Structures are given as structure tokens and as C-alpha cells.
Amino acid sequence: MSTATVVISLLLGASFGFILQRVQASSPDRIIATLTLRDVTILKFMLLAIGVGAVGIGLLTSAGLAHLNVKALPLLAVAFGGLIFGVGFAIGGYCPGTCLVGAAEGRRDALFTIGGGLLGALVFALIQPALADTVIAPLDLGKPTLATATGLAPGAIGLVFGVAMVGLAFALPKRLVGQAQPADEPEKDVPLRPVAPPPAPGNKVRQLAPGVLLAVAVGGVAFLVAKKTPAMSPLIWAILIGAVAANTLKMPAALQPGITFSAKQILRLAVGLLGLRLSLSQVLAVGPAGIAIVLAAVVGTFLFSTWVGRKLGLSKSLSTVLASGTSICGAAAIVAVAGVIDAKEEETAVGVGTVTLYGTLAMFLYPLLANLMGMGADAFGLWAGASIHEVAQVVAAAFAFSAGSTSGSAVEIATVVKLGRVLMLAPMAIALSIAFRKASGAGGGAKVSPVPWFVGLFIATMVLRSLEVIPAATVDRLVQFDTLLLTVAMAGLGLDLRWAKVKAAGMRPLYATLAGTLFISGLSLAMVKLLA
Amino acid sequence: MAQVEAARLEEIPRAAQEAERPEQARRPLDWRVGGVLLGLLVTLAVALQGPLGVSGAYVRAEAMAASWLDLPLLRDNAYLRSFGAALSPELLVVIGVIGGGLLGALLQRSRKVDELPRSWRQRFGGRKAVRFLVSFAAGALLLFGARLAGGCTSGHVISGMSQLALSGMVFAAAVFASGIPVALLMYRRKP
Question: Where are the alpha helices (DSSP H) in A140-233?
Fold first, then answer.
């Protein structure tokens, strides 16, 4: 055995033991709570680990990098062994690995479990020859896996199975029997920021000017910084710089009206002008398979992400915002949908932050994974376009995949497919607007149109662009102006952000978005493999 | 203000709880974080050398002991011989598991653990000898079952199912099929 093997084995084992200790899988109380179905957290932990592992190992297998060691299935032996194991598992509350960790933690009953384990293993060794013919040999089914049993590619079925396990882990309620305990994490509503003073009637421009000017200044800085860092868009810099400024400096109250105006009204205008970037004829060029993939990915991911968000206890509006960002087009979709459903500002900011985070990770990981899987350029373009969050991230990933050449078919296909997803913004925004209006009760806002003005503007600018009535140079200029508006709006959003409110949302938006990201990635990969 | 008061109200029972039940005062790592980490670890293990497993190491430790003590057992028993008496990656992983568990416990603020599991004490009282005897029997059942099936929770369920192995799925189903009713019979709380 080489030194490397020794070190790697010890480190793998140590990480394993550390994780088991930290999730308290080594506590018999936790195992017993799981088996009596009072608190199945440990089962959820196992399912999630299996899910993540299945996706990871599936990818490794399709890349030919896996050191698999599939165990045989002598049906009788595995079934009887499992039944006997289950009895020991239930009465003791340990398994062969967790009792080692328990003993290391100082649990004396774990030491006795290890002692019993050594005896049990020895007894088995002694009578194994007698069992070999009677229990082990008959009904030996070889070493089947889901891949060999179905004949599907291990990578694809690993993804499907893994995503299903992850979904199951999250869907399973913590408590399966008995009455629920009082919720241990009550919804918090943190009223930390003093409410903005009501706008005094009078000179509106003078009220708004200070805050808007500050947002423009932050946006300008963001633009300059983004020039030096091509991997990060000015939008992200604007929200970052704004948030840092707002949480480290003391903001005079006079700035507030302008900041709110930037984060709400300027944002809507900017989203409305997004349509200038879309030409229908371009979008339709992806063909029927591409359109099917886009439709399924957007709708499926939107529904799945909203559901996961609600399961994790996020508010309806935050779940919807996160789902839109994951399924349609990142930050722009988030702010558009947030405007339609009247999400809180901090929810919008949390959404932009998490979706950007995962989109950026995907931008780096996709080219690597695709190379591991030996994907072709067209398939990669479809996959990246159908599942990475931001347009910019899609393009960057496709560039990286085609090793920097701009002419590769991966870049073209990815961009067009991505634009197809952006196109879904209009129908989604209208549908959500109607749905949320119904939910909030028909009374009151009967006068409000189901199509918010900026969604109307979005459709109008898209039609103008598709008809090709505006000269291309003018379109370019307008698109630049729109990016500027978006940056200013993001600066306003950042300046309006209070850290305490973000913290109140906790880690749950991160988990919800991770689930959504894995889902859209897995779903579109599976569909690309099936359809294209 | 309201928060400060709420925190103060919470503090009193928690302190009392900590004195009486050191373990319950500790919060476990979020299962979502732990699950993702373990999934990545399993993937890493398969990328580097092969899936993680634990129960085989018990047999290998015995084979090594038999060889070192020069017991005739090893020579006579084909099953032990098939494991061999050399130090293997599998055994090193198990040594690592113990070390990692120790590290995790040492890095914790409260290192105390319950002498007896709470669920046990509630049903069977505080006599340690009984719990230790039952733990020993449970360990024997665990490893007999695991060796008969060819793996345990780590090798069959976590690593096996991650590799899409049907054996892992059959094993997991069997474990819960007997584990859940037995646990419910033994530990169900009286209403």
C-alpha cells in the first residue's frame, strides 16, 4: 500500500467520522427517534447524502473516472442480513460505523456495541461455510444496478435517481407520527429599519434627487469596477457596493425616498426595456426540441422550486421570487417578478444574491462537467442555455466550453436557448400577477390591470425589436442605456438592504435555490440526452 | 427590547437543561449541510480509490488478530482467510472514522455525552448494566446481519445506493422493515 493510499484512507475516514459526529448520527437517541418516526432527520440526512452521491458518482462513471465497487445481491442473504441488522439497529440505536464514533465521543454503550459487533462478525465467519450453500448461493442475482437493470446510461440515471433522492429528503416531513410539537422556528418579522418618513406633499424632484444621485454614483462605480472584472457584471457589483455602503455607513433619512424610487420605479423601467434584447425570429431558431426543453425546464423548475421553498418554510413571495430567478433568467427575472407580486425589498435582494451565487458556480462547473461527460458542442449549448441562470453566465460558460472561440456552435445555441427562457418572462409575469391578485382577494385593487405597465413595455419593445424597425446601432445604444438603468436600480436595491433582514431569512433561501438549481440542471441534462 | 426579553426568558430553562442533560443542549449540524457534505465525500472516495464501508473492517481486524496471535482459526476458516491479514485501506478508513469522531467531539463546547440514551432511560430506567448488555447483543446482531448481507449502513446503503446498486436498496428496505416495528415496540412513548 502506498503512502498516498494510507493518507487518503485515513482522511476519508476522518471526514466521515467527523460528519457523523456533527450531525449526531452517533447519538442513539437520534437513531431511535428516526426508527420510531418521531424525528426522521437522520433518514433525511442519509437520503440527501445518497442523492448527492448518486449524482456525483453518475458523473464520474460517465467520465470513466469512478472506482466503483458494486456489492453482490444474493437476495436471501441480503434480505435476511438486513432484517437481523435492523433489529440490532433498533434496540441499540447504533450501526457499525456510528458506534465507533460514539465510542470516540465517550459513550460507554457504544464500546459494548463494538464488542458485540466483533463477536457477531466472528460467529458469522465461523458458520459462513454452512451458510454459503444454503442461504448465500441460491438466488444470487449478481451485481445489478439501476443502470444495468434498465439499460440506461449510468450518468443519466444517476442524475434522475439522485435528484429523486434529494427531493425525497426535502419532501419528507421531520415527524411522521404523533402530534406536532410547537414549531421550533417561528417566522420572524424583523422591523429594524425606521419606516421612511411619509412623502411630504411638495417638490417631488427635490425629495427624490439625493437618493437617486447616490444610486447613480454607486452604479457608476460598479460600472468602472466591472470593466476590470469581466467575469462579474456591473449589476452584481452595484448591489454589492450598495449593500456594503448601506450597512457600514450611516445613511441620512433624506436619501431614503430616492433609494426606494431607484429600487422600484427605475427597476421596472429597466426591466421593461429588456425586451429590446429579444428577437423572436432568433428565439424560434432553436427548433422544436429546443423549445420543448426550454418549456419543460422553465415550467418544471418553477413549480418544483416554489414547492421546495414553501416546504422549507419560506414565504410565498420569496419562494416565487427564487423560483423565477432559477427557472427564467436570474436577477432580471427576480426583479421583474418581485415587482409583479409585490415582494419585499429584502426578499428581492436575497433572491438576486443566491441566484447569482449558484449561477456563477454553474458557469465554472458546467464546462468541466461537460468535458468529463464527453459532451458535444450542440448538446452543451442546449444544456447550458436551458439551465444556467443569467444570460451573461450562459455565454461565459459556453465560451469556456468552446475554449474561448466565439464562433463555436455551443455559444450560439446556448445564447438562443437562453433567450427562449427569457421570453418566458412575459407570460410568467402575467400569470403570476393574476394568481397573486386572486390570492390577495378580489376586493380593493379591481382597477389594476393584470398586465403591469412594465410587462407591457417588455412585450412592446420585444415586438419592436423583432420587427426590425429600429436601426441596429440604435438598439445597441438603447441596450447599453438599459444596462445602465439596471445597474442604478441594483445600486438602489443594495442601498436599501439591511443585513439583519437578510440574516432573518437565514440559510433556507440558499438551500431552496440549490435544490432548484440541481433540479433544472438535472432535468435539462436528462432531456438533452433524450431529445437531442 | 422585545428580543432581549425573549432571550432572557429562554436562558433560564436552557441553563437548567444544560446542567441536567448536557447532550440535548447541543445543536446538531443541519442535516442539509451534513447530507451534502457526506454525498460529496462519498463521491470523492469513489473518485480516489473506492466506496466507503465499515463492517468488513471488523472481520479484517479479527483476521489480523488471529494471524498475529498465530491462532489456527485463520488457517482453518476460508472466510477470514479471504479477508487476509494485511492492513487494508478499509481498516485505515475505520481508524480514520474513530479519529474524526474524536476530533468532532473535542472541538465541541460541551463534550459531555449522556451516560444512557434518553429514550432508553425513559422506558427502561437508569440501570447501566442492562443497557450495556443489550448494547452488546445489539452489536452482535448488527455485525452478524451486516456480514451476512455483505455490508452495512455505510457500504450497502450510503455508498451502495449512491452507486445505484440494487443490493443496497434491498438491504435498506429490509433494515427499515424490521427496525421500525422493533423500535416502535421498544421505545414508543406512552401517551
Answer: 146-150, 154-171, 204-228
Amino acid at B58: Y
Cα angle A65, B169, B134; round to 5: 115
Is A115 in Cβ contact with B179 (below 8 Å)?
A: no
Nearest residue on chain A to B131, alpha-carbon basis: A109
For residue range B86-110, list pLDDT tens digits in order. Answer: 888 999 999 999 999 999 988 887 7
In the stretch 46-65 of chain B, residues with CB closer than 8 A to chain A read 46-52, 54-55, 58-59, 61-62
Confidence of residue A232 (pLDDT cuts 50, 70, 90): low
A79 in contact with chain B, both atoms CB, cutoff 8 A: yes
Task: Choose among A67, A114, A126: nearest Cβ to B46.
Answer: A67
- B28-62 b/e with 16+ CB inside 10 Å = b? bbebbbbbbbbbbbbbbbbbbbbbbbbbbbbbbbb
A16 closest CB neighbour out of B47, B52, B113: B52
Alpha-carbon distance of A521 to A527, in angstroms, equals 10
Are A11 and B162 within 8 A, CB to CB?
Answer: no
Given an 8 Å threshold on Cβ–Cβ distance, is A29 in contact with B118?
yes
Q: What is the amino acid identity at position A421?
A: R
Residues above pLDDT 70, as percent of chain A? 90
Quick check: A158 contacting B, CB < 8 Å? Answer: yes
Q: What residues contact A205, with CB distance under 8 A and at least 6 apart? A: none
A141 to chain B: nearest residue by CA?
A: B167
Alpha-carbon distance A349 to B56, whole Å?
A: 50
* B46: nearest CA partner in chain A: A67
pLDDT digits (tens, 9 = 90+) for A427-481: 888 888 888 876 665 444 444 556 677 778 888 888 888 887 778 888 888 888 8
Mean pLDDT, rounded, of chain A: 83
